[in-house]
């Protein structure tokens, strides 16, 4: 039986999943990081994701060293990884990751990149191979489902790609880690989603001292 299609992201209390867009070469290259826009982006991103960095599973998966926190947050990260048989992402997320990820990319499964540019598959150590899909989000999802088998497919991001899958009615459920930070401006998770087309059912809530994990099933109206 095919698995579910889901996404799992961190969101600020005022609804943003990322700071404002800045050029990738500012954020992810040593030459650009002294730029005030890059410093602001990094500060806001670090505040949003602060709950992730201390977790034992995250540290071990990225080979940052042993030890770390255990509990609801660590369990959420591990469960997301374990259920995922393949991922789909947009080209901008991939371009940023190509600059920032370690040589052993942190997915360890096939990843399908929605893009307009043809490119041969890019295999990384540790089981991650990036496949570049030029014929749309449905094709990328079909290929990811086939690769995932009976495991789930994660729509990894960014926001525009998640919104496209929501608008197409292709998301079964999602989890938000609601962080106690305020952005004021940035990239909203649900900006381009028609609220009249979707109905949500809250299915689970888990909290910690750092974030609240909210899980919703998605239904078409």
UniProtKB/TrEMBL annotation:
Gene3D superfamilies membership: Dihydrofolate Reductase, subunit A
The protein, known as: Dihydrofolate reductase family protein
Bacterial bifunctional deaminase-reductase C-terminal domain span: 4-207
Highest taxon, organism lineage: Bacteria
Organism: Nonomuraea corallina
């Amino acid at each position: 039986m095919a698995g579910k299609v889901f996404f799992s992201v961190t969101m600020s209390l005022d609804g943003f999943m990322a700071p404002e867009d800045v050029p990738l070469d500012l954020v992810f290259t040593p030459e650009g990081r002294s730029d005030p826009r890059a410093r602001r982006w990094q500060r806001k991103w670090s505040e949003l994701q602060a709950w992730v960095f201390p977790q034992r599973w995250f540290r071990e998966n990225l080979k940052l060293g042993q030890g770390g926190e255990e509990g609801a947050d660590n369990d959420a990260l591990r469960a997301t990884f374990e259920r995922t048989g393949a991922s789909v992402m947009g080209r901008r997320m991939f371009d940023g990751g190509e600059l920032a990820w370690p040589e052993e990319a942190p997915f360890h499964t096939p990843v399908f990149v929605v893009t307009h540019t043809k490119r041969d598959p890019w295999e990384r150590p540790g089981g991650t191979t990036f496949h570049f899909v030029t014929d749309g989000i449905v094709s990328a999802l079909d290929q990811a489902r086939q690769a995932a088998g009976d495991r789930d497919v994660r729509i990894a991001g960014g926001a525009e790609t998640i919104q496209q899958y929501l608008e197409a009615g292709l998301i079964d459920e999602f989890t938000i880690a609601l962080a106690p930070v305020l952005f004021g401006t940035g990239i909203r998770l649900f900006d381009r989603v028609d609220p009249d087309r979707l109905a949500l059912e809250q299915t689970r809530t888990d909290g910690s001292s750092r974030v609240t994990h909210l899980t919703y099933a998605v239904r078409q109206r």
